[in-house]
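PT: before anyone asks, these are the final sequences, not the draft ones from last week. 553 residues across everything. Please model them as a single complex and drop the result in this thread when it's through.
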Amino acid sequence: MIDGENSILPIVTFEATKDWADLHRVASPDLDRTGLAKLIAALSTTAKCVAIEREYIDKDYRDTFSHFHSKRFSTPNSRCLRLHFFDQPITRASLKEASLDDGKNAALNKSYLGYSVIRPTKPNCIGRTLLTPASRGSASAYASLCREKVSILGTELEIAGFPFISQDSDVTVCAESALWMILRYFSNRYHLYPEIYPFQVVNLTRDYSLGRLVPSGGLYIWQMAEALRSIGRPPLIYTRQVFGKSFEHLLYTYIESGIPVLTGVKGHVVVAYGHRSSFTANLPGSETIYSSQFNDAFVINDDNHVPYQLVQRTAGAGAQASKYTFKEILDFIVPMPEKVFLPAEDFQTVVTAILQSSEFGYKVLSSSLKDSRLVLRLFLTTGKSFKRCLGGRKMGHTVVEDMYRNIPLPHFVWVCEISNIDAFGRHEVCGEILWDATRNAREPNGWIALHYPEILVVDIGSALNKPQDLIRFDLKNSIPYELYKNNLQPI
Amino acid sequence: MDNSRKFELIPEQEKESKSFFATADEYDEFCRKFVDKVGPDLEKQREARQQSEADAKLRLIR
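LR: through. Structure below.
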């Protein structure tokens, strides 16, 4: 059913699967069959209604139109369509009411699944897109998400998701599209980073390129890394061939830290920004387990497909399954925060040395953990976020919570959460080691605190910008507490 | 401002604490052993990152 087919905002209500044909008819010629198939793949299980915003001026398409498409003899339209999806039927009246009544706005916002811009570009018409992960149904996963405000006929709605765009095959191919997705995530999430449009993404590599920039012939991995560096995210590059068995663990660790990662497969790149774990995985042996070993899928945006695909450890079925598996990931680029000098693998080395040391090791200082099979979870977070979560988590003991609350922390800290199989299965931990992310790994005094159920050791020296001064508190009646969940959101 | 002043980070609790190492020599010994232990792995990892960067110059994505 179509309401206001000739209006500036026709609304198509899906009463049956065939009604997607109505959307195709109203949104033609910009929405081609390939684009429609992608939208159906992404939204057919949840979308019940779509509002088609005509004559939409899209900032990203207008950028490439001005710098490239407008210079062609046969010039495409400078305007786009923007499709707004809802999981309930809506009307023009309900949109208007939602602009006047907060309660109605909240109800309408609850049914809003996000938007997709349809560009007049061939062969890929799907432009800037931000859909809620719920639009694809539950993935039982965790992912980095950002928020945007959207205005429809003056009614303001908000959507959380991970930005998506498909390549236009002229100005952008997959390399620039993947860069755009990461850069838009950063600018949406953090005020520190400017909004960057597709042609600007192309220009980020102009000082590191030979020959012409457009039409794009693709980018080398190092050029993508330089593009990230130029916007204030110093990159680290990891290849499977060099890092071997640590490769997937390190990829997981950065994603667990809330850092979206450019992930290369043969001739192609996707953005990985979430993961899914299976805690029923049987991990035989007695050695320490890393939480990455429970990981069975990465959440990705592949510009050739739809948002929120799952790259699984082994090939799997399902609407969300990517055609790639873990072993096809060849390399990845991590856009590190500026104030993180310690990479994940170096943090793991130093924290392992502490856990095994004769002075601070868990077998020496923790009677409750010494016979356990440890589960370690490594991640990076900001000192500010870590402190914000203290009240809810309680940290197992008042002294620990109070000390972490009071002690000055660096902008970023590496955290190694310490748990055992039973507690980790309940999403609980027994202690942690905090490490200053601005330290050199060779400094033996880079750690801020070590916490086992029986003891808290804190460096009150570096906290006050003085030489390391380690003090200990003996703890009684500690209890397990909730693991840190602030970096990623459940999807 | 007096930079030598010692702050109490949690005033009610800090009197319950004690220094972890009894002597400066014990602390120095810990630091020496730590550096010796982590050094070889850190060196391997630095070389691995450099090799990854070198490989990245040859991988075209399109």
